[in-house]
Amino acid sequence: MVSSSLLSLAFIISPVFAVGPAVPPQPEDRIPPKVDPTRLENFPWTNPFSSASKLGQFDATCDSTRTFSAAEFQLHDLRQPEPTGLKPYSEALKGLFYGRGYPGGWEGMDNHGYERNMLKMEYDEVPAKVKDWIQEQESAKGPGQGLYAVLDKPLSRADDKDDEDESGQKVVIFAPGAIYENLPLWVAENSNCEESLSDLSTYTATPSEGAVVGWTTEHIAPSRTQGRRDIKFTVKAQVLGPKAKEETDDESTETAKSTDESQRSNQAAEKVQESQVPRQEANEPVKDNVKDEL
């Protein structure tokens, strides 16, 4: 018989997004030890704004940045009630996520096992273009199917069941790595380049002319020891264009030399014009003193 410790180890190192423990529920102090985070091997996205990027070869013709509010949880929070846990959604999440590949945490990192992160957002705070993408992927069974779990909030006595399907009565739960799959859509609306950012066919991990690149530029872990789960994260995307030509040192010297020669030529022309101006001569009329004779 396989021991629970071996099952725990298999769960921790597995790349599969196994929501819920692979062993019977344990007290918080018996959760298996944390494993050092590693980057997902199949994570295709890289930070285009890092110093190692080729972004400097291009100019941004447009960029857009937005900051969002969310709550960040770990897998072992599934057993905890709200607001520090996801217990009302645990069964639904197991059905949606169990057995599929983990999309990754922030920047494609995998904290493994019980330390894996999940985000919860109010569905009505998700940009409309992201909602449309989620619905399209689900209905068409596209590659993004199952990345985002849109779930009804648990109903309280004061809730009206007639409003159950309204956006304000739903939440969306997802791994941070899911954001990178449709990142430009998070910042497209009301930007100066909405059409370009809405076209995911130009979204790429490799900067190039005409491409759209993006990244999550800021996110801070919640104060879990203080019972906090709330966070903010910032998303940035750019449309890239050709690099503006910069003058070389030789070109700058040649331009300065040409300017000096032009100035000297203008000064010489002004002197010639001054020398050709005729001098005015004072020609006073002579009056004859003539006596009138009787």
UniProtKB/TrEMBL annotation:
Compositional bias ranges of the Basic and acidic residues kind: 281-294
Start-end of Polar residues biased regions: 264-278
Keyword terms: Signal
UniProt-annotated stretches for the region Disordered: 240-294
Signal peptide positions on this chain: 1-18
Organism superkingdom: Eukaryota
Protein name in UniProt: Uncharacterized protein
Organism this protein belongs to: Coniella lustricola
